Amino acid sequence: MEKYISLAHGDGGELSHRLIKDVFIEAFGDGNAALFDAAMITMTTHRIAVTTDSFVIKPIFFPGGSIGKLAVAGTVNDLAVSGANPAFLTCGFVIEEGFPISDLKRIVTDMADEAKKSGVTIVAGDTKVVERSSADGVFINTTGIGIYENTSGCSLEFEEGDAIIVSGTIGDHGIAVLAARGGLGITVPITSDCASLNKMLAEVFRSTDGVRIMRDPTRGGLATTLVEIAEDFHLTMKINEIDLPIREEVHGVCDILGFDPLYLANEGKAIIVVADREKEKVIDILREFPEGIDAVVIGSIIGKGKGQLLLETPLGSKRLLTRLSGTMFPRIC
Amino acid sequence: MEKYISLAHGDGGELSHRLIKDVFIEAFGDGNAALFDAAMITMTTHRIAVTTDSFVIKPIFFPGGSIGKLAVAGTVNDLAVSGANPAFLTCGFVIEEGFPISDLKRIVTDMADEAKKSGVTIVAGDTKVVERSSADGVFINTTGIGIYENTSGCSLEFEEGDAIIVSGTIGDHGIAVLAARGGLGITVPITSDCASLNKMLAEVFRSTDGVRIMRDPTRGGLATTLVEIAEDFHLTMKINEIDLPIREEVHGVCDILGFDPLYLANEGKAIIVVADREKEKVIDILREFPEGIDAVVIGSIIGKGKGQLLLETPLGSKRLLTRLSGTMFPRIC
Questions:
Q1: How far is it, in rounded angstroms, from Cα A226 to Cα A309?
Q2: If you measure CA to CA, which chain A residue comes closest to B227?
Q3: Going by DSSP bridges, is the β-strand pair B271-274/A318-321 parallel, antiparallel, or unpaired?
Q4: Distances in Å between the alpha carbon of A122 and those of A28, A76, A154?
Q5: What is the tens place of the pLDDT at every residue in B261-282?
Q6: Would you say A87 and A134 are in contact if contact means Cβ atoms under 8 Å apart?
Q7: What's the mean per-residue pLDDT of chain B?
Q8: Domain locations in chain B as residue ranges
Q9: DSSP line for A148-188
Q10: What is the pLDDT of residues A148-168, one digit of tens each?
Q11: Residue A79, H or E segment
């Protein structure tokens, strides 16, 4: 087989056919004959969730993951936080001419591994090739279909006093990827948190009907995601700076370089707003999983009517947080 | 609003929020609050079809369409040929920094128009921005979900004598796009056939249980798609050169520049293999639609066991056709 992707790998002819066979079917299996065409699926319920995400992360391999692992876990998590059970994925590749086929194989293997781990089936795919310099390496779109089973899901009905939980340390993915770019000028022993959270989150949904909303704080970080919730549902939310779980190394890099961990991307974390009475139960469940070992309550809903996110400092003063404004870092996912 | 896409439009913060509101929700409507997150869908059946396609066409605007129209019609057609009723679409954008927002609006409007025309709902989306020169303008992934209703669909059971029908002239899209690139050195009055075929094809499925298979001959053209069918189902297929519907202008360009219309891309055509007894009925139905006015029988299945596609010339000699081998033209869709 060739060593590098050529334009002919994307023209739908003989080389495309071989690429699909030798790389994609090799990794994903040929159980589904329609792997690279429309796939027929029989659902177990009538209620499904659908989400789509394109991944353009740079570099494509980083400590803790790759664009392939991320493309599966990212879409799995989007479904999981909605209360759906991730079931099916499609993947669409845009590849730059000259891209090493060995790298493509590594990426596709990561996708297959993560799909297996999270229990989703890759049912359809597509590959396009563009000329050298018309794309940067490889971009992957994954679209996911989830099934709503017998859980109550997110109620979207909030009360004053509801607790805000984050499932673990924030900013790990952002710092790990920046460090992998070599642009920080320092070496940091930080690994991306990139992981599929669906099994852990399903356990939370199964155990309580008190979940108001779940979200995954990816691009824009914890603060942007919470501002979105606050604005969408006209809530005043308060988080306590002292309770934020942040690794010492992440703190260190942020202090030196002037980043704010509240706005750094995460790829294996969930924000859970839950009835106050259920917060301990949810924390206990999260901590049973390696991905949730650092789960903590970071704040609460303190009012309704206005959409506001407040950060309370250790000295008791309050700061209004806004969405991320102006790019901290492009291509973080 | 800004005139050009900046990296901050892709970082998930304030500018991303405004781009979604001002461009995407403006065109697609805000009926679905989860437009840019996981969408919840209630299905009317348990059997669905799923397909995904990335579009990297160059130029993004061409006679007869745009990357936006194509991204909807292409995925709609992939579902329609499988016998499913296209119902839901997701869209994922990768946009180059500096891309004009006016062009993005035009593309998104084309998507909304084509979605309306074909009766599909856009339920989820995503936007990423990459640095200048890390992508060429805009790439769009669409993933489609179709519903199988009360039609028998494709039987995939073939018999000797089955007729091969093409729903209209071949090669129009390929030539129109090449001409739009300005690379042919000649002006050609050809418009792309880019169109959603779902209503026409649904009528065919409703009227007969004799459809063996339907496919849309896009990248790789009519010949590559037929070779795939022949190989996948171990059929000897024969098509007659004299019966191929090819516009005079397309013939002309192919003669001058040495292209083979059998390998040129189509974006509004279907190949239908149907029981011989049903072929007139199917042709009659196709011709009731503007997109099927030039539908004809071009050949038949003449044997089983081997996967072969033969082209019979007007003089009676037979030529074995293979898949497209080596790129004719990159980025045709």
A1: 7
A2: A13
A3: unpaired
A4: 7, 12, 26
A5: 999 999 999 999 999 999 999 9
A6: no
A7: 92
A8: 7-147, 163-321
A9: --SS--------TT-EEEE-S-SSHHHHHHHHHTT-SSS--
A10: 886 778 999 999 999 999 999
A11: helix A67-81
Mean pLDDT of the A105-130 span: 94
Nearest to A218 by CA among B210, B290, B36, B3: B36
Query: Cα–Cα distance between B48 and B55 in angstroms, integer?
Result: 23
CATH homologous superfamily for the domain A163-321: PurM-like C-terminal domain (3.90.650.10)
The count of residues in chain B is 333
Alpha helices in B208-295 (DSSP H): 221-232, 248-257, 279-287
Surface of B (129-168) touching A: CB under 8 A:
129-131, 133-136, 139, 141, 143-146, 148
What was the ipTM of the complex prediction?
Answer: 0.93
pLDDT of residue A325: 82
Cβ of residue B10 closer than 8 Å to a chain A Cβ: yes
The dihedral of CA A48, A54, A59, A61: what is its sign?
A: positive
Give the Cα separation of B170 and B218 in Å (integer). 10
Whether A326 contacts chain B with CB within 8 A? yes
Inter-residue contact B300 to B197 (CB < 8 Å): no
Q: Sorting pLDDT into bands at 50, 70 and 90, what band is B31?
A: low
Q: According to the model, what pLDDT value does residue A119 have?
A: 96
The pLDDT of residue B146 is above 70: yes
Class of domain A7-147: alpha beta
Judge contact between A314 and A242, C-beta under 8 A: yes
Q: Are A74 and A333 in contact (CB under 8 A)?
A: yes
Sheet holding B163-166, edge to edge: B211-215, B271-274, B163-166, B296-304, B235-240, B308-312, B318-321
Show which of residues 172-211 on chain A sit within 8 Å of chain B, judged by CB atoms.
Answer: none
Per-residue pLDDT at A76 exceeds 90? yes
Q: Is the pLDDT of residue A67 over 70?
A: yes
CA of A1 to nearest chain B CA: how many angstroms apart? 15
Q: Which residues of B276-308 are buried (b: 16+ CB within 10 A; e: fewer)?
A: eebbeebbebbbebebbebbbbbbbbeeeeebb
Residue type, A303: G
Q: Return the structure tokens found at B326.
A: 């080596």
Give the distance, in angstroms, between the CA of residue B212 and the centroid of all CA atoms in the same chain: 20
Look at A17 and A236; give whichever has higher pLDDT.
A236
Mean pLDDT of B290-312: 97
Q: A302 phi and psi, to 5 degrees? A: -110, 0
Q: What is the pLDDT of residues B175-230, one digit of tens each?
A: 999 999 987 777 888 999 999 999 999 999 999 999 999 999 999 999 999 999 99
> Are B115 and B198 spatial neighbours (Cβ–Cβ below 8 Å)?
no
Cβ of A11 within 8 Å of Cβ of B219? The answer is yes
